[in-house]
């Protein structure tokens, strides 16, 4: 019996996606350059499915993989982004893949690479892309999927992705979860929706990761202020996060942060977090989001600050020198009541900052969508982020509703619900940022979110002076508020050697 799907790349994500596909009734032919990974998944499949049923078939070459598949072939790749994707595509061409066959890239590829690949492989096979979020557990039991590319290919892939995706209860917007091998969730709304032409899905996933960076950094700043400013122990902060997880901040990232803070080191018995080196890594998607925001001209300072926060964290040796050389304020000693209030302020600051980070991400997608002609559907995007992905949160249900009520919403901050939320909580947000600043504890993402909010709601920014400066030294021209829009002016600001004299009326 021929297989339904070919799967190439059996790293953590690939292996788990393959098992998820098998749980959903697909017969898979799989291949990895590392044969031990093929052997490992076959062993795991035997264990999980029982010895009778063979759901996954191992292959030793690309040619064998194609020979084991039904026609037209559907081949899914889970290989590292970049050159490895083309390496596999070229091997598939050599192995005889045909023009009607579909190859789906599920890695964290740069969206422009996906656009180039669709054009490059045209006529050889149909290149389709699907960005995947959810880490290993998501891949195994239900990821959030962001497919994009050829609409015909989508009709073939749709049932597959809808089967393996995370599911959400349509009424409450809450995830329906099962982590039992062989027992996938079949009811509920799948977290998989067609995003648009090729590239759009990976762009949306890239912005998801930018938001993920901001979300993580904001939580880390709240932790830092509690730890270094309020003198709280990791277990106490974990408990605070667990309480926060009961309300508007309920999210996967808050939940796992509490678990990380609670973990004790087996060797020393100390909180493990205190022993983890404070130098953050990054694979690139947050940076790509920041670069894209700069290129498109969409203000996304909280996301960008989150990337810079990782950069400054990596300067560990320099920071150690600077910690001795440079001065700052002493952290004040707070009464119990003051501390409780400071924790409440942080809660509200985190919530308001989070709204701003998402507003920035959605604004960036809107600008890119316009530029690329993608016609992104933001209610659908928010919907498929409600479960399965790393930024899953109850909050995404409110974003879904905001875009369902107004699909041309210019900015999430203008949605009546979010506007009223910030109106209620901004006092404490401002206090949290001010207190951190006075204590000398960095809160770059939180304060940049506040600055984003204050800039966005500012009717007159000092860009008038900036335009004057530009015209002064570079004759760059300026528009006037009292003349028709678009009309450009330039004046001689000063005679050489003479100061400008204010004209009195
Ligand atoms: C996801 C994650 C996943 C991964 C990224 C970010 O949505 O499942 O975003 O794609 O965690 O690679 O990794 P870095 O923090 O290393 O950039």
From TrEMBL:
Role: Catalyzes the oxidative decarboxylation of 6-phosphogluconate to ribulose 5-phosphate and CO(2), with concomitant reduction of NADP to NADPH.
GO biological process, one term: D-gluconate metabolic process
Reaction equation(s) it catalyzes: 6-phospho-D-gluconate + NADP(+) = D-ribulose 5-phosphate + CO2 + NADPH
Pathway noted in the entry: Carbohydrate degradation; pentose phosphate pathway; D-ribulose 5-phosphate from D-glucose 6-phosphate (oxidative stage): step 3/3
EC number, UniProt record: 1.1.1.44
Limits of the 6-phosphogluconate dehydrogenase C-terminal domain: 201-494
One Pfam family from the record: NAD_binding_2
Protein's name according to its UniProt entry: 6-phosphogluconate dehydrogenase, decarboxylating
Gene3D superfamilies: 6-Phosphogluconate Dehydrogenase, domain 3, N-(1-d-carboxylethyl)-l-norvaline Dehydrogenase, domain 2, NAD(P)-binding Rossmann-like Domain
Organism whose genome encodes this protein: Bowmanella dokdonensis
Family, per entry: Belongs to the 6-phosphogluconate dehydrogenase family.
Subunit relationships: Homodimer.
Annotated keywords: Gluconate utilization, NADP, Oxidoreductase, Pentose shunt
Alphabetized NCBIfam families for the sequence: gnd (TIGR00873), PRK09287.1 (NF006765)
Highest taxon above the source species: Bacteria
Entry-linked PANTHER family: 6-PHOSPHOGLUCONATE DEHYDROGENASE
Entry annotation: catalytic residues: 205, 212
One GO MF term: NADP binding
Oxidoreductase as UniProt keyword: yes
């Amino acid at each position: 019996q021929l297989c339904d799907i070919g799967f190439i790349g059996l790293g953590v994500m690939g292996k788990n996606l393959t098992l998820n596909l098998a749980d959903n009734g697909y017969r898979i032919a799989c291949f990895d350059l590392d044969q031990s990974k093929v052997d490992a998944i076959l062993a795991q499949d035997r264990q999980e499915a029982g010895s009778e049923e063979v759901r996954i078939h191992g292959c030793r070459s690309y040619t064998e993989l194609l020979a084991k598949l039904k026609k037209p072939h559907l081949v899914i790749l889970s290989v590292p982004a970049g050159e490895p994707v083309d390496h596999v595509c070229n091997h598939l061409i050599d192995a005889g893949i045909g023009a009607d066959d579909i190859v789906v890239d599920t890695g964290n590829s740069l969206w422009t690479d996906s656009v180039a690949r669709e054009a490059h492989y045209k006529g050889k096979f149909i290149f389709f892309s699907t960005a995947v979020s959810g880490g290993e557990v998501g891949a195994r039991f239900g990821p959030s999927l962001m497919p994009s590319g050829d609409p015909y290919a989508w009709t073939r892939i749709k049932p597959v992705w809808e089967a393996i995706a995370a599911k959400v209860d349509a009424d409450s917007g809450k995830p329906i979860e099962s982590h039992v091998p062989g027992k996938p969730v079949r009811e509920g709304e799948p977290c998989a929706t067609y995003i648009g032409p090729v590239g759009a899905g990976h762009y949306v996933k890239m912005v998801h990761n930018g938001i993920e960076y901001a979300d993580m950094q904001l939580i880390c700043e709240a932790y830092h202020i509690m730890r270094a400013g309020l003198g709280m122990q990791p277990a106490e902060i974990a408990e605070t996060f667990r309480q926060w997880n009961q309300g508007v901040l309920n999210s996967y990232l808050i939940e796992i942060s509490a678990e990380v803070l609670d973990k004790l080191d087996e060797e020393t018995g100390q909180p493990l977090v205190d022993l983890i080196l404070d130098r953050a890594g990054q694979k690139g998607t947050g940076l790509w989001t920041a670069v894209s925001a700069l290129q498109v001209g969409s203000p996304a300072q909280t996301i960008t600050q989150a990337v810079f926060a990782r950069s400054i964290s990596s300067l560990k040796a320099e920071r150690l020198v600077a910690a001795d050389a440079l001065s700052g304020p002493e952290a004040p000693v707070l009464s119990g009541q003051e501390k409780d209030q400071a924790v409440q302020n942080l809660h509200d600051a985190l919530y308001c900052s989070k709204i701003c980070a998402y507003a920035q991400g959605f604004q960036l997608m809107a600008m890119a969508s316009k530029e690329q002609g993608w016609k992104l559907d933001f209610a659908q995007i928010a919907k498929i982020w409600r479960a399965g992905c790393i930024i899953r949160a109850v909050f995404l249900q409110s974003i879904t509703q905001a875009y369902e009520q107004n699909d041309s919403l210019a900015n999430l901050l203008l949605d009546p619900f979010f506007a009223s939320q910030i109106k209620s909580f901004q006092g404490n947000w401002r206090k949290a940022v001010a207190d951190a600043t006075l204590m000398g504890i960095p809160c770059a993402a939180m304060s940049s979110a506040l600055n984003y909010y204050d800039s966005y709601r500012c009717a007159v920014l000092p860009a008038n002076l900036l335009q004057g400066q530009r015209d002064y030294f570079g004759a760059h021209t300026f528009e006037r508020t009292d003349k028709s829009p678009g009309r450009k002016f330039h004046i001689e600001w000063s005679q050489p050697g003479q100061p400008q004299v204010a004209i009195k009326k």
